[in-house]
Write a structure and sequence with these properties.
126 residues, alpha+beta, 37% helix, 18% strand
Length: 126
């Protein structure tokens, strides 16, 4: 399956053979203000696996590039604006998060743009 066919969490679940209605854990025991971020992170992990296909980052390989979407936060007009900004790569000596890395720049850019709302829910404290 072409990664651009993954346009939603439900598409990612179908790609991974998961039931989107049942796969997410119950976050109700956590503080209400954290639940949305926790659910977004769980969804992004499944989306990440679907977009990466069989590729798995090898953190012992300094020559394998790993790509991450970056976002821009700006305080404009009616409040904070969060938007996809760019894509970066790093190797296993990275000081950036590893769980949501992607196999190449194109996939990282796609993830950052297509799932910007989920990344916002994950990263931004509301």
């Amino acid at each position: 399956m072409n990664y651009t066919n993954i346009k939603s969490f439900e598409d990612a679940c179908a790609n991974q053979g998961l039931d989107a209605a049942k796969v997410l854990p119950d976050f109700s025991m956590f503080p209400e203000r954290d639940r949305k971020a926790m659910e977004a992170h769980a969804k992004l992990i499944i989306i990440n696996k679907a977009l990466n296909g069989d590729w798995v980052p090898d953190w012992t390989d300094d020559d394998q590039w790993k790509y991450f979407p970056w976002f821009y936060m700006d305080d404009e007009d009616s409040g904070s604006r969060f938007s996809y900004y760019d894509c970066v790569y790093d190797d296993s000596c990275s000081v950036v998060g590893s769980r949501l890395c992607y196999r190449n720049r194109e996939v990282a850019e796609y993830a950052g743009k297509q799932f910007e709302d989920l990344y916002r829910e994950y990263f931004v404290i509301a």
